[in-house]
Amino acid sequence: MNDSPGIVRAERPLFEGADWEFGTIQRVHDAIEKVALNDLGLDVYPNQIEIISAEQMLDAYSSISMPLFYKHWSFGKHFARNEALYRAGMQGLAYEVVINSNPCISYIMEENTATMQALVIAHAAFGHNHFFKNNYAFKQWTDAAGILDYLEFARGYIAHCEERYGETAVERLLDAAHALMTHGVHRYPRRRVADLRSEEQRAKERREHDERVFNDLWRTVPVKEGGKEDQSLEERRRALLQLPQENILYFLEKTAPRLLPWQREVLRIVRMIAQYFYPQQQTKLMNEGCATYTHYRIMNLLHERGQLTDGAMVEFLRSHTNVVFQPDFDDPRYSGINPYALGFAMMRDIERMCTEPTAEDEQWFPTLAGSDPMDVLRDVWANYRDESFILQYLSPRMIREFGLFHVLDDANEPNLRVEAIHDERGYRKIQRALARQYDIAWTLPDIQVVDVNLAGDRRLIVHHRALNRILLEERDARFVLQHLADLWGYDVLLKEVDPGTDSVLKEHAATPRGGILHPDGN
Amino acid sequence: MHIVDRRLNPSGKNLANRQRFMRRAKSLIRKAVHESSASRSIKDADQAGEVALPAQGVHEPSFHRSATGGTRDHLLPGNKQYIEGDTIPRPQGGQGGGGSEGSPDGEGQDDFRFALSQDEFVDLFLEDLELPDLAKRRVVDIESVSWHRAGYSVTGSPANLALLRTVRNSLSRRIALKRPKPHELQELRDQIAALSPDGEDHARRAELEEELARKMRRTGLIPYIDPLDVRYRKFESMPKPVAQAVMFCLMDVSGSMTEHMKDLAKRFYVLLYIFLKRRYKHVDVVFIRHTHQAQEVDEDTFFHSPETGGTVVSTALEEMQRVVDERYSPDSWNIYAAQASDGDNTASDNDKTAALLTDTILPLCQYYAYLEVGRDSEHFPPGFIRRDSDLWQTYTTIIKSGAPMAMRKVGHRRDIYPVFRELFAKKQQASAGAEE
Predict the structure, then answer these.
(1) Cα B72-A390-A349 angle, rounded to 5 deg
(2) Chain B CB contacts of A483 below 8 Å
(3) What is the per-residue pLDDT across A505-516, written as a single tens digit (0 to 9) for each?
(4) CA distance A30 to A112
(5) Closest CA to B6 of A101, A107, A97
(6) Binding-face residues of B in 176-235 toward A, CB within 8 A
(7) Complex prediction ipTM
(8) What digits encode the pLDDT tens for the residues A61-117?
(9) Which CATH architecture has domain B241-435?
(10) How far apart are CA B346 and CA A84, in angstroms?
(11) Domain-by-domain residue ranges, chain B?
(12) Chain B residues 254-283 with CB within 8 Å of chain A
């Protein structure tokens, strides 16, 4: 790719053979760092590379890959499951795990060969690291410098609660909170509470505006009174509770009438952690695409400069090819679109469109042709998430290469229908449909707390807006609703509504179990 | 950049989570353990192993969309033949487009295998059970005590003088009180001797001699060994726990015992063996089979070699007594016996058996369990009172006298474990059971 004439070939490669020691890791890291910063212009947090054993990798798996975490039986369950799979040889372990923290911690496995260590350092310690530091979603929602401290606090706090209130009480609370964890995130930045000074400023501006547009005539316009009063009261009540509210855990933490202060704090901990992982869910494709592209470029540059032996390069390519393999839909190995494959292919495609655009590309992406690929990619990595990225950058060529097609499955029809394929008429449709698959708002059910009368029977009313009339999985929904009722302390009613017509498709109700979360019973 | 080697960190970070999970899934795991133990052989019955748990039991629910109904979009790679507007028959299972889509949370609904360590396995297996009369009554009365070192004391017999400790104390006292060392005295003497006897350095000489005198006085005042320094090794007597047990398996192998009955008996012995192994460091197993005559055999013969003949239970008891006399002195062995039989006995032998049991065997034993195995198919309509077997009747009278003995009837494999638990359930129930 970068066949600049002035390549300086290294005297000898960074390592030979499969063995490594700490000196090798250091050398490899330094060489990669040079390439990443100088050639690719990446911007990363300082790195901390930790070498771990298989058991520790399993540990990391079970506690959603965080180095320290509070204790809960579900993590023990995941550990047992992964361990059993691993021991039976049914599942390999990841080569690395990387944590969005500052310094950026990458765990690498001791079993990796020297080549694999180079690959994972390039992939995790530079690719993911750059993405974590620069992507807007991570910037907006996570605090890389504070997360480890927060987890430390969370673990300590929950251990303290277990000592003070008993393991069972804490476990029940965590069970309930975990069940609602997917609905414990803020999807939009909240309005910042205005401070006095800016509030004053705004009041002043409003007054000035009123004075400017004052017209005495308005005073004479008859005002309709009556029903309006009631409705505004109702609305005021909802507004005070910030309803409707889609962050259920937040709502419970702030509003649930019967929770004790420590219970609210635990809900908050679960919610904060869910929020921390929220950007990762929305950027899976890009994150992996960015990291895979980065390691591919870095390894190739190292090889060009004589820092990797040919043998190491072949080993790398083999592993890389496995990672970016995309089976077809009718292949027994198919299990959805591989984010590594699509992400990497799209990054490469953007690079290609910058350097060797075709007529089609110039028509679709006029701004890309001729720009510096790394500038474009860095901008993409910083400012998009999966959904917007696909909507913007999935080129017709990609659609053709992957042979993407869109199938509509309507439960009312006897057959599935192919809506679009990789042709002129289909490109836009496929872009849109695929982007939607990556939109977390489409994949997670839209559930909102819509109303509660705190002065009355305190029954919590929750709506599921059943997109495309797909209902909730009933068994699970009942369990979660029970947890929700336990937390709320009063009856809960879940209505599944058709967003088009506002008609109720299905209703579930739950009554809190006595003595589960509220020790005083009744 | 930092490189941290985490491999040396203590392992078992997940232990607390694992314990919480075990507690959570306890009833499920317990059930799985009991089921899996039924399929194990006697040798590895108490080994670690995997049990399968139903995934639903420890399910973590979340709000998610159901897999059926509504309108769905599928975006699939690898189009080969379809063009816009084609229709595809709906594949079986409702999933669109053919390929197998993973379940949304990545968790299958099938059972998951869960590996238990040996301790965890046996713990669950023998939960809430207790050995009756764990302490060896007869021996506690008699003198089986052992002497253990218990530090040092300031008094004791000269034979127990702790020389090293005494000298160490003396040394530290001498250093603390600055007792002059012999070589210091010698140096002073040498210096005095080195001075010319003429007396030119009279002042110097007097000074040295005075110092020597002072040091000599100090040496006299501070003894080399003071009674304060003396320490004796201290011993304490501890009642010696009898950490070994022998388990006698007595079984009727006459023709009336079917394979099914032997299997039941074997299961019972396995349980007892695991249980004893849990409590005692060393467990011996003696197999005695009997027809109209008894002999000690190895395990394989015991369970698998067929015999024919009448049934005389007392012969087995006599054989057991012989073995005890020969090899297992009741002073140093805990003796447990488990007898399995279909309940037949030669009528004339019943009195002899009863006498042997009460007078000889039971006083030797910690516990004597009698298991009457029945046919699997044996099923009695309600209201039909089955006549108790000869042995059962005989033993009932013995138990009434409050002997450390229990008996149960078992007809099916699934009853073995409950019966075993019943026999060894915690104290109160056990004694209540024996008195019934």
Answers:
(1) 135
(2) 61
(3) 888 888 888 766
(4) 19
(5) A107
(6) none
(7) 0.77
(8) 777 777 788 888 888 888 877 777 777 776 667 778 888 888 899 988 888 889 989
(9) 3-Layer(aba) Sandwich (3.40)
(10) 55
(11) 22-55+111-125, 158-234, 241-435
(12) none
